[in-house]
Design a protein that fits this description.
alpha+beta; BirA Bifunctional Protein, domain 2; Elongation Factor Tu (Ef-tu), domain 3; nine-stranded mixed sheet; six-stranded antiparallel beta barrel; Transl_B-barrel_sf; alanine-tRNA ligase activity; Ala-tRNA-lgiase_IIc; ligase; transferase activity
Length: 882
């Protein structure tokens, strides 16, 4: 068998299927576009779902790709097993209603065994099939010539992820030799749990439609178009070519491991199994972090950003196990770039930016890590003084807030002779996972094919870039309730015309609106929406007012005012995109957009809020370009020519072989299929309405142009005049001084109120401090204070500490609709086992809330002020038991 590098394996796979008429799709961003069901692109087919569910018919029905993917559902297994990864590449070949098993299976065999391609020994290949898939069995045995003893039935070989395409699959295994036999001999067969027979390829024969309500695949109907979907993990198959025991001993990971050895200076890979786990985790996680940041995701506390943060922190913690205390992950980013440069040159091109984000996050975590280790020391001390068990909720806090994996807390606990409440930890983890699941979209992961729309091959031409009215165009199709009809008299319908000026919603730009006229000039329908049908036709949604008949001709007329407003905002979006890249950096990329007649919304990747000064500079720059009256022009050309023009491709998957390039003077050029103003002067003006974060590392700017900007300015004038009246400013220019004066007066009043409140609180505290009650062996002061904030309670507790007139202090503040509690415990009482955190948890239910804290100080909040007296009673009863 050949010895191939990872780059050579990927290249051979893609070139083989290209030779079979497949189009090579480039690896798409890890951040899904227009797919709320996915946090990350997690498979080779994920970016092709629009073809499999029939919403789009591809130009070439044969596709191949090598797609970077991220999965983190079993992150704890990384490093402990031979082949678990967070980032991986899935290579695949796909047929969208073109070839099927009779081609897919022989081609798979040819790629694997032909000396021209992979050149594997056929005797080392084994196959599993779905027991009822007689067609696949026949092809393997009689067309390919696979020996019968190399073919195994496997009942689990049926690919089904819910409603939508599904079908049997066939898995291909490589025999690595007897030395990899599992100790449990009953598992030593292809498909068993063993290391000998390594699965390297899965061929999915997508031939059934899992319809709503069906649970048995025997009842699934055939798909109108049958598909092929295969997946070959690059990391797995490379381990075969490079004779590696695990995926980590390949050229995809070893350079990272060797660089980590160099940074550590203490340990070598392969000398200690425990340390090897850390080497593997670091190599795996830095790959995922590097690619994720390179695609625009940034560390944060939610969504994708949380995953990045968690991966990075796990890598840092494993670095500590290798004796690495300094910032080091940034130094691995260029290594990732070097490994992947043949197919992903953008990593090396952006390595400085990616490394800067990694470094900043690592520095931040090192500070958090120090705090977490201090907390862990306190937790260990408390557990030793208690029952020798670290509470599961506390362990989860260490994990969730400080990035400590459970295993690390357990390891520290074991070193100190303690245990960790795993059940409690798992309960907290499940609660978090349930919250995450409930926050995700409930849309199906892949839609059900619409046979009618997929089958329509009607010719339809869009002319709306230059014409807003089309006379005498033929009504080719009418659809009502997903059935073709010849005539509609009134109500809702969908229609395809031979020629249309109506823009179909795409790329964030909403569809045109307008009217349909008959030959007599009567309005027979209103166009309320336009979408792209699977074969590219513009599918008009109509409110039919008078009879319409297939085969007759009609006049189509776009609402010009609405069209112009949308087009202006689209041009402004291009100006904003270019200006953001100019002023914030080229790494700032589009993450989504919405262009309507009223407003434009632009999402972009950026690490942190954009300052008010920078926003003003962005707005001023765009208005300068509007004043310059730059022409807006467009040209259709091939992709390579477009790139030579300097055109920016935002979401490359939506472009075919011929692309449309829209240019705004010499300021901006982009791949684009939308409508635009004729010149920037038509926009009138540009005004930013808001800038805010929408997720991990993604910001959103909303803005208006033209009439929308004028309306906003008028609204601002109205607000200012109202403020001027309220602050009694004769001129708008005096508003600022008036407001500053009012703010100063307010702060003085607040200081006086706070001073009086503190004096009253001190008086009340002195009265209470003089009358502690005896409970069991302890003294207790429990009193309600007429204060407005927790700060005053804390100040009162500080005064109590000076003289410590009791062993325990319980303070309550009735704030109307809510209540605050504060518990303090004297040092001697803490030593005797009285803990403020435990006490506050015991009494907080009385006020309808919860809380926690340290052994000497804790607090709680609730929504039942009427329960304050019950809380005091509960405190006394709790002390009575001690």
């Amino acid at each position: 068998m050949k010895e191939l590098s990872s780059a050579e394996v990927r290249d051979l796979f893609l070139r083989f299927f290209e030779s079979k008429g497949h189009k090579i799709e480039p690896s798409q961003s890890l951040i899904p576009q227009d797919d709320p069901t996915l946090l990350w692109i997690n498979s080779g087919v994920a970016t092709l779902k629009k073809y499999f569910d029939g919403s789009v018919v591809p130009e070439n029905h044969r596709i191949t790709n090598a797609q970077k993917s991220i999965r983190t559902n079993d992150i704890e297994n990384v490093g402990h097993t031979a082949r678990h990864h967070t980032l991986f590449e899935m290579m695949g070949n796909f047929s969208i209603g073109d070839y099927f098993k009779e081609d897919a299976i022989p081609w798979a065999w040819e790629l694997l065994t032909s000396p021209e391609w992979f050149g594997m020994d056929p005797d080392k290949l084994y196959v599993t099939v779905y027991p009822n898939d007689d067609q696949a069995k026949d092809i393997w045995l009689n067309k390919v010539g696979l020996p019968k003893d190399h073919l195994y039935d496997e009942p689990d070989n049926f690919w089904d992820i819910g409603e939508g395409p599904s079908g049997p699959d066939s898995e291909i295994f490589y025999d690595r030799g007897e030395e990899f036999n599992d100790a449990d001999e009953s598992e030593n067969y292809p498909g068993g749990e063993n290391e000998r027979y390594l699965e390297i390829w899965n061929l999915v024969f997508s031939q059934y439609n899992h319809l709503p309500g069906l649970t048995d695949n025997k009842d699934y109907p055939e798909l109108p178009t049958k598909n092929i979907d295969t997946g070959m993990g690059l990391e797995r198959v490379v381990s075969v070519f490079q004779h590696a025991k695990t995926n980590f001993e390949t050229d995809l990971f070893l350079p990272l491991i060797h660089k980590t050895e160099e940074i550590s200076g203490q340990y070598k890979y392969g000398e200690d199994d425990t340390k090897d786990i850390s080497f593997k985790v670091i190599a795996d996680h830095i790959r995922a972090v590097t690619f994720a940041i390179g695609d625009g995701a940034l560390p944060s506390n939610e969504g994708r950003g949380y995953i990045i943060r968690r991966l990075l922190r796990r890598a840092v913690l494993h670095g500590r196990k290798l004796g690495i205390s300094q910032v080091f992950l940034k130094d691995l980013v260029p290594v990732v770039g070097d490994i992947m440069v043949s197919y992903y040159p953008e990593i090396s091109e952006n390595k400085e930016y990616i490394a800067s984000i990694v470094e900043a996050e690592e520095v931040r975590f090192n500070k958090t890590l120090s705090d977490g280790l201090s907390l862990l020391d306190n937790v260990i001390a408390a557990a030793k003084a208690d029952n020798g068990v670290i509470d599961g909720e506390v362990a989860f806090k260490l994990y969730d807030t400080y990035g400590f994996p459970y295993e690390l807390t357990d390891e520290y606990a074991t070193d100190e002779g303690l245990t960790v409440d795993r059940e409690g930890f798992d309960t907290q983890m499940k609660a978090q996972q349930d919250r995450a699941r409930s926050a995700r979209s409930n849309k199906a992961s892949m839609g059900v094919q619409n046979e009618l729309l997929t089958s329509l091959k009607t010719e339809s031409t869009y002319v709306g870039w230059s014409e807003l009215t089309v006379d005498n165009t033929n009504l080719a199709n009418l659809i009502v309730d997903n059935e073709l009809v010849d005539e509609v008299t009134q109500g809702e319908a969908q229609a395809i015309f031979a020629k249309t000026p109506f823009y179909a919603e795409m790329g964030g730009q909403v569809a045109d609106l307008g009217n349909i006229y008959d030959e007599d000039g009567q309005v027979v329908a209103k166009v309320t929406d336009v979408q792209n049908a699977p074969n590219g036709q513009h599918l008009h949604t109509l409110t039919v007012l008078a009879p319409m008949t297939v085969g007759k001709t009609y006049k189509l007329d776009v609402d010009r005012a609405y069209h112009a407003a949308v087009s202006k905002n689209h041009t402004a979006t291009h100006l904003l995109d270019q200006t953001l890249r100019n002023l914030l950096g080229e790494h700032t990329t589009q993450a989504g957009s919405l262009v309507t007649a009223d407003v434009l919304r632009y999402d972009f990747t950026y690490n942190g809020p954009v300052s008010a000064e920078k926003l003003q500079e962005i707005e001023d720059t765009i208005n300068e370009k509007i004043i310059e009256n730059l022409p807006v022009t467009w040209v259709e050309t091939d992709i390579e020519s477009a790139k030579k023009l300097g055109a920016v491709a935002v979401f490359t998957e939506k472009y075919g072989e011929t692309v449309r390039v829209v240019s705004i003077g010499d300021y901006n050029a982009e791949f684009d299929g939308g409508t635009h103003a004729n010149s920037t002067a038509e926009l009138g003006m540009f005004k930013i309405v808001s800038e805010q974060g929408t997720g991990a590392g993604v910001r959103r700017i909303e803005a208006v142009t033209g009439a929308g900007a004028m309306r906003l300015f008028k609204l601002h004038d109205e607000w200012l005049n109202n403020v001027a009246t309220q602050v009694k400013a004769p001129q708008l220019s005096e508003i600022n001084d008036k407001v500053v004066g009012l703010q100063t007066a307010l702060k003085d009043a607040e200081r006086q109120v706070a001073s009086l409140e503190q004096k009253l609180a001190n008086q009340a505290a002195n009265d209470a401090f003089a009358k502690p009650q005896q409970v069991n062996n302890y003294t207790l002061i429990a009193t309600e204070m007429a204060v407005e904030s927790m700060d005053v309670l804390r100040s009162t507790a500080d005064n109590w500490k000076q003289s410590t007139p009791s062993d325990v202090l319980v303070l309550a503040a009735n704030l109307g609709e809510k209540v605050n509690l504060l518990v303090a415990v004297a040092p001697e009482a803490v030593k005797q086992g009285i803990k403020a955190g435990e006490l506050v948890k015991a009494i907080a239910p009385a006020i309808g809330g919860g809380g926690g804290g340290r052994p000497d100080m804790a607090q709680a909040g609730g929504k039942n002020p009427a329960g304050i007296a019950d809380a005091f009673k509960a405190a006394a009863e709790w002390l009575q038991t001690k």
